[in-house]
Amino acid sequence: MADSLEPRTTAVLLAAGAGTRLGRGPKALLPFRGRTLVEVLAAVLLDGGCREVVIVLGADGVRVAETADLGRYTVVENPDWESGMGGSFRVGVGAAPAGDHVLIALVDQPGLTPETVSRLLAAHRPGRVAAAAYRAPDGSLERGHPLLLDATLRVEAAESARGDAGARFFLKAHPELIDLVDCSDQSGGDDLDSPDQLGLLGQ
Questions:
Q1: Of residues 160 and 2, which shows the higher confidence score?
Q2: What is the DSSP letter of 164?
Q3: β partners of residue 191
Q4: CA-to-CA distance for 41 and 142, rounded, in angstroms?
Q5: pLDDT tens figures, 75-95
Q6: How far apart, in whole angstroms, are the C-alpha atoms of residue 123 and residue 105?
């Protein structure tokens, strides 16, 4: 029963952006596998082993909440979403249950799988950060998302978030805390940022 006293992991799904470069409205509402992208990714995070999911909305937040089936999740809104990811990062981490580790995921990574999530949960070590990493053309591992922050680090990481940077400044200040977890066999590292990447959705 001792394991029940260990901190658990809540996922924070950042889904507040307007998707301006795609020109199709918020990425959260893009059709994917017969549902919306935000619904699919939230389910992936639960299936991967997170105990709950906090979804941070922003652009067209009311429409996203009314359109997508998000009843299983904790939905919060970042009223200052236009200032960048940093604000959404702070709102999301702040909404996760106190004492939980937090796994930060992005709604524009449709290739995310439960296997990647469970791999990060298994690789996480106390007091450290487990970051999904993917092979670059030169064979080196490059840090990406998702990112699992230990419960003891989440406050400092959130306080450092600003502008378009979520955990970036925190990670740059503490490279010794980062464990790269090779997820190159998964497709979750590809971001959906421009129209020519809509193929990631099967479109």
A1: 160
A2: T
A3: none
A4: 22
A5: 999 998 888 889 999 999 999
A6: 16
Please, are residues 32 and 203 in contact by the beta-carbon 8 Å criterion? Answer: no
Q: What is the overall mean pLDDT for the chain?
A: 87
Residue 37 CA, chain-centre distance (Å), reads: 13
The structure tokens listed for 90 are 């702070």
* C-beta separation of 97 from 26 below 8 A: no
b or e along 109-145 (b: 16 or more beta carbons within 10 Å of the residue's beta carbon)?
bbbbbbebbebbbebbeeebbbbbbbeeeeeebebbb
State the average pLDDT over residues 58-80.
Answer: 92
Q: What is the DSSP letter of 59?
A: T
Distances (CA, A) of 199 to 110, 172, 186, 193: 10, 32, 16, 11
Degrees, nearest 5: CA angle 136-109-43: 135
Rounded CA-CA distance 151/57 in Å is: 23
Give tens-digit pLDDT for 161-194. Answer: 988 888 999 999 999 999 999 999 876 556 555 4
Question: Residue 166 and residue 173: Cα distance in Å, rounded?
Answer: 13
pTM higher than 0.70:
yes
36/109 Cα distance (integer angstroms)? 13
